[in-house]
Amino acid sequence: MVKIRNIELGNFPLLLAPMEDVSDPPFRAVCKQNGADLMYTEFISSEGLIRDAAKSRQKLDIFEYERPIGIQLFGSDVETMRVCAEIATGARPDLIDINYGCPVKQVACRGAGAALLQDIPKMVRMTQAVVNATPLPVTVKTRLGWDDSTKNVEDVAERLQDVGIEALTIHGRTRVQMYKGEADWRLIARIRENPRICIPIFGNGDIDSPEKALEYRNRYGVDGIMIGRASIGYPWIFNEIKHFLQTGQHLPAPTVPDRVTACRQHLDFSIRWKGEKTGIFEMRRHYTNYFKGLENFKPHRMRLVEAPTHADVSAILEEVAEVYAGALYEC
User: pTM for the whole thing?
Assistant: First the structure.
């Protein structure tokens, strides 16, 4: 049984990665329904929380059906991160996660996210400050290093464990790689094999099928896997991996009506969370992903992204379910 303090996650948990503009409560809801064991909010700017920015505050929204759920914070200032850990604790998550892995310029070039891989002493001080600021378990997500010449995650893992983190997720790329190339899990395996490491180690990067999940579990010995991009428009991946790990068999692929049902559930959560106008607008980015690979879907997608009301979207989705009921995917 993998545990983060008293949070039981099963024998080989599957985690939903925090993804900006993706892993909001509606998206998390459909992933939870389809087998995600632990989820995180979109990453939240510590500076935004300090300024009481509406967007940052809204990202603190969590719901009972999501548990266990972690709030992920990022920032460049130690004291600001400490205060924000206290604020986030007030939202009653199950844990606090620190992002030391985001590679995008808007984050890393401001000294946050993966930029802290260039200043390990500051990373340690920041982590210690967050651990001291909350009674909740603190976890970290990071990368192998800044670039190929500074893959320092083995040292990072030991030092962060020493100041109190209770789980570590490692993306198998450097910051310079961004999301390009193939993720390298060999360093992740070495950390898992390190006798000094006693916290759960989760691997992240390139897991997009049940077969790869099984291969990486067996080859690299991680305690669980975090899944990001492969879940976008395909929340079924969590249950598909679980079933394959347990039985060696594949679950039936979701049909078009299955996809319509998940898409409609996602839309309903979105509207309940943000109201009809905003909920419908923010849902528009997801239609292509839910129906990726469906032949001649473009006319329906165009109508979906132009539909102004919940009733209009529902009618189009019902039409999609009927028109493509027997269609096969070529994804």
Answer: 0.93
Q: State the catalytic residue, choosing from 102, 198, 263, 331.
A: 102
pLDDT in tens, the chain (331 residues): 999 999 999 999 999 999 988 999 999 999 999 999 999 999 999 988 888 888 898 999 999 999 999 999 999 999 999 999 999 999 999 999 999 988 888 888 788 999 999 999 999 999 999 999 999 999 999 999 999 889 999 999 999 999 999 999 999 999 998 889 889 999 999 999 999 999 999 999 999 999 999 999 999 999 999 999 999 999 999 999 999 999 999 999 999 999 999 999 999 999 999 999 999 999 999 999 999 888 889 999 999 999 999 999 999 999 999 888 765 444 4
> Considering just the CA atoms, what is the radius of gyration of the chain in Å?
20
- Listed by start position, the domains of the chain span 3-247, 256-323
Q: State the CATH architecture for 256-323.
A: Orthogonal Bundle (1.10)
How far is 128 from 142, CA to CA, in rounded Å?
Answer: 16
What distance lies between CA 212 and its chain's CA centroid? 18
**Angle between the 186-193 and 153-162 helix axes, to the nearest 10 degrees?**
40
Homologous superfamily, domain 3-247:
Aldolase class I (3.20.20.70)
Q: Give the pair of three-digit tokens for residue 120.
A: 């390990």
User: Quick one: tokens of 14?
Assistant: 């599957």
**Token pair belonging to 144:** 């192998």
Q: Which of 258, 257, 263, 311 is nearest to 284 (CA)?
A: 263
Q: Is 31 a catalytic residue?
A: no
> How far apart, in whole angstroms, are the C-alpha atoms of residue 165 and residue 212?
28
